[in-house]
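Dear support,

Our group has been running a series of protein-ligand predictions, and this particular one with adenosine-5'-diphosphate is the one our PI (initials K.S.) wants archived with full inputs and outputs. We had some confusion internally about which version of the output was final, so please treat the block below as the authoritative record. The input we submitted was:
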Amino acid sequence: MKIVHAASELFPYMKTGGLADAVGALTVTFAEMGHEVSVFLPGYRGALSHPLAAGAERRFRIKVEMGDESLSGDVFAFSPSKNLTVFLVVRDEFYDRRFPYGNGERDYEDNSDRFIFFCKAVVETMRLADLGADIVHAHDWQTALLPLLLREAERRFGVTLAMKTVFTIHNIAFQGLFSAACYPRTNLPDELFSMDGLEYYGQVNFMKAGILFADRVTTVSPRYAKEIQTPEFGCGLEGVVQTRVDDLSGLINGVDPAVWNPVTDKLIPARYSASNLSGKRTCREELLRQCGFDADFQGPVFGMICRLTEQKGVDLVLANADFFTTGACRFVVLGAGDRRMEAALGKLASAWPDKVYLCPKHDEAMSHLIEAGCDYFVMPSLFEPCGLNQMYSQVYGTVPIVSRVGGLFDTVRDADEDQASGTGLMCAPTAPELRDALERALRLFANRSCYAAVQQRGMARDFSWRTAAAAYEALYRDAL
Ligand code: ADP
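Confirmed final output from the archive:
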């Protein structure tokens, strides 16, 4: 198949979260399976200067209609591996920035223009490059207009393409909601600015367009596919999602073994496998050392890696701060984001420097060291479309403590409830329930053989992208 992906993040060129990992791994896996894959990414500063993009060449000069204006851009392309072409849409005014969506304090004011332009640039490049796509797969709100813009382009040029469109919701909490003033920039027909179109309580909702107009809608776990049909998790779009239940599926992400594999991981001080965990002990000691803790400490080390946001349950962790400061354990957090949360965690770490450590930045190497060096990974998300770290944890023999939501529900089993196949500890996303799970973690850790059994079962699980990609492949074929 000829498959086109469009996304605002792509590992390793631009990443803020799981979206980058998912699109990165999916495109590489499909290319390896012999499909012809093109993937579009905005030409961010970091993407253009990435060593893998060194061979990028300007392929097209494009003009994009934005309301009454015509804006130009350049499309660069390079091929990082067989069957895979990365297209970078370059327009410095929009993308020559360090961060993809905002400066950390707030979102960029011109985000609607930036991503309308990007979607239109994809449509135009597909035409100029004559990509002849069978499937066009758009991810999250930033590219949610793409399925509709493609149908509009067909109408404009009087053609009907055999191509099918797929839209994946990686997180329904981010919808791309903008003032109605941006609607004319889409050049879509006025009648689509209505309840049955992009309009959402007087504003424009990009994600709504993706859900309504793609041929197939997917999200990143079966549980989340059910949850987003409810008011509790649908973030106001549950009614829209309900209209597409017949075309909706939940396909769990995988783990990229080229990046996340303790047997080959070059970012950790020692490599290890399920049959020989001595390297994990070395990683643990190095982690303790880097955090300024006593490297001989024998109790459990808890780790957490996430964007510091409400979603990730940081407040539930803060409500249980005394567990980490008074208990016989260590706690290391890697994460940046919300200032209040960062400050609260920072305060905890300075008050208890021999027990709690905060690394308040994005740090790829540190994230690998935490996954490898910890005994437990803490992920009490309030909602979690798929989640990757609970899978990485199992692969690295680090027992995950997760809430029973979304992809966490689908990928972890509670070891107390299911003593034959449990791979982690689970709780409801509340502070007291998390406390209970943390206490259970201490008891489990004290029973070395039981802990080892849970750890081994996690390491034996198969989270390969081959399985995930096969599910997408079946979906594509079915759509076609
Ligand atoms: P989300 O996409 O909601 O942020 P996921 O668990 O799906 O959550 O994916 C998060 C990804 O981002 C993981 O690969 C995680 O390791 C990584 N990550 C998050 N915060 C950091 C950080 N501060 N440093 C390095 N990696 C991080």
